[in-house]
Design a protein that fits this description.
Blueprint (H helix, E strand, L loop, with lengths): L1 H11 L5 H20 L9 H15 L3 H20 L26 H11 L4 H13 L3 H6 L5 E4 L2 E6 L8 E5 L1 H4 L13 H14 L9 H14 L4 H8 L4 H7 L3 H16 L2
Antiparallel strand pairs: 1-2, 2-3
Helix pairs in contact: 3-4, 6-10, 10-11, 11-12
Length: about 280
């Protein structure tokens, strides 16, 4: 737990009012103590674990609804900070407010939309264009993109590789970067040296320039586009699964939005054959 303790002190260092610091400790320390007693690494924290912790604390200490809401907000800020520091494999801040959330239907951009996005990237800040390239050309998750560092870059002959030591689920993998992405790499430091919120504001400018009317510019949709376009290009499902960092083919199939068109084509073929 030493690294988590250091993270907490680093997090609290940005605050100067002692009452505020004490209040934050009041909510965060019980969570860290529960993790220590459960021997649960901080990287494996889940939204369900945090939610149950809040319920237990509220019941045991007789919290009012306002106090419970304050605890949730403080833990959300701390978990969000830990995510940005690369200590969490998955962002949880948006999931803390709901126990169940319907799974959103993935959107993928058409070839024409991708071309407009890439054209707009030429006039965007270098690190913003790099983030979009990593999602669209390598299918990286947002957490992978924001935590990637130039120390992870490897060279294998003529290829440039990006080694990701910790992906979702605690796995590691290495991806090959295309030359157009390599040209955007910085000299040192993090590949995308900004928070997601800053990145999102810059991506909004690209979204407007690319005239994306049907769907906003989102990294996860770029990832879905990578998977769909790879499958449409004839890449095997197994290779796409490995490139996307999935453990099951069913997960890869969920991201593949091309199946909708395929189903229509199959039905038309059957109708034409039977009615001939």
């Amino acid at each position: 737990m030493e690294s988590v303790d250091a993270l907490l002190e680093e997090y609290l260092a940005s605050y100067t009012v002692q009452s505020t610091i004490q209040n934050k400790r009041r909510y965060i320390l019980p969570l860290l103590q529960k993790l220590a007693s459960a021997r649960l690494p901080f990287s494996e924290v889940t939204a369900a674990f945090i939610d149950q912790h809040i319920i237990d604390e509220a019941r045991g200490k007789g919290w009012k609804e306002s106090t419970t809401a304050s605890a949730r907000n403080e833990l959300q800020r701390f978990v969000s900070y830990a995510y940005k520091r690369g200590l969490l494999a998955e962002e949880l801040e948006l999931r803390l407010y709901a126990k169940t959330r319907p799974r959103a239907v993935q959107y993928f951009y058409s070839v024409e939309e991708c071309q407009r996005i890439l054209e707009a990237c030429k006039r965007a800040p270098r690190h913003v264009a790099l983030a979009i390239h990593l999602a669209l050309f390598n299918g990286l998750r947002r957490s992978d993109i924001l935590s990637a560092h130039m120390d992870y870059i490897r060279h294998d002959g003529q290829r440039v590789l990006l080694h990701l030591p910790l992906r979702k689920g605690g796995t590691s993998s290495t991806v090959v970067l295309p030359q157009v992405t390599v040209d955007l790499l910085p000299a040192s430091g993090k590949l995308v040296p900004c928070s997601y919120f800053v990145l999102k504001k810059e991506m909004l400018k690209i979204e407007r320039e690319a005239q994306l009317i049907a769907h906003p510019l989102i990294l996860h949709s770029l990832r879905a586009t990578f998977i769909t376009q790879a499958l449409d290009a004839g890449v095997s499902e197994r290779d796409v699964m490995l490139a996307a960092g999935h453990k099951r083919l069913t997960t890869t199939a969920y991201y593949d939005q091309g199946y909708k068109t395929a189903r229509v084509g199959v039905s038309d073929a059957v109708v034409s054959r039977l009615q001939a």
